[in-house]
Design goal:
By secondary structure, this protein is mostly helical. The chain has one domain. 66% of the residues lie in helices and 6% in strands. A two-stranded antiparallel sheet has the order 1-4. It has a two-stranded antiparallel sheet with strand order 2-3. A hairpin with a 5-residue loop joins strand 5 and strand 6. Helix 1 runs parallel beside helix 7. The two termini are 20 Å apart.
């Protein structure tokens, strides 16, 4: 029953993500940030208790919340590690200078990326789930999402503003280095927690659980491919330093980036899941 509900969440999220270009310019687009963040959280609440237990889930959320908020607040104040930027009012209430929705967004995609990394590195047994290969691969999987997402959120939607612009459609290079540092810190902190706690509460996931995590990652990429196909082919946007960018260039470039980064991860993970079980693995 719960597996069916999880698949419903995955399917609805993917459909919503693919429909975002059709919502642009309508009153419904105001729901995009909320649904985009809450759907992965609902997925985690359904998926995680059987995989890592409520205690580890609470720790993972707390670490993702505190670490991401700390790095974001530090960068808004000093420019380290992401660069100089600020959030607009589009994401609602803020904790200090950071919208409250940002930290759950980190957590939701971190959880999915961690599971995909476990699959890709064959770190499926409880004692393997906190090794450095998982931390490293999960960090790359997570940053691929930001690489595909940041220009559309910042330069096009103006959800946050980069003060000094950047060569990547108004986003600076340092942002992605900062992202890697931030999420690697989250994964390393969670790995340390698991290494010091009762690791028996981390399950060896079956292929359905692994496929569900991959399914939500597919939902993430659906947005970028959809915008590349259905997004506006005319018009321009101007970033904070006066650089003018063509919308078509942004949408189609982000589609290409997502296909050959996130898409590669999806294909590789799917091949791993399709391979015959070995050594008794489920």
């Amino acid at each position: 029953m719960k597996n069916g509900l999880i698949w419903v969440v995955v399917a609805l999220y993917a459909a919503f993500a693919a429909a975002k270009p059709l919502l642009a310019g309508t009153d419904w687009f105001v729901l995009v940030p909320l649904v985009s963040i809450l759907a992965p959280i609902v997925f985690v609440l359904l998926h995680a208790p059987r995989q890592i237990g409520w205690a580890n889930l609470g720790v993972f959320f707390a670490l993702a919340f505190v670490i991401s908020w700390s790095y974001e607040s530090l960068s808004i104040a000093t420019g380290f590690p992401f660069g100089h930027y600020h959030y607009t009012e589009d994401l609602g209430w803020q904790l200090g200078t950071v919208p409250l929705l940002i930290m759950p967004a980190y957590f939701g995609v971190c959880y999915i990326s961690w599971h995909i990394a476990r699959t890709l590195t064959d770190a499926l047994e409880p004692g393997q789930s906190f090794g450095w290969p998982v931390v490293l691969v999960a960090s790359f999987v997570m940053v691929m999402w930001d690489l595909s997402m940041d220009p559309s959120r910042a330069t096009v939607n103006l959800t946050w503003i980069w003060h000094d612009g950047g060569a990547y459609f108004g986003v600076p290079f340092v942002n992605f280095a900062g992202w890697f540092l931030c999420v690697a810190t989250i994964f390393a902190a969670f790995a340390f927690w698991l290494s010091r706690s009762a690791t028996k509460t981390v399950a060896t996931p079956d292929r359905i659980a692994q496929a569900q995590a991959l399914g939500l990652y597919v939902g993430l990429i659906a947005e970028f491919i959809s915008f590349a196909v259905l997004g506006s082919k005319t018009g321009t946007v101007t970033d904070a330093v006066g650089q003018v960018w063509n919308l078509r260039d942004i949408y189609e470039s982000l589609g290409l980036v997502s296909i050959f980064t996130m898409g590669f991860v999806i294909v590789l993970t799917a091949l791993k899941l399709a391979a015959p079980a070995r050594d008794g693995a489920r």
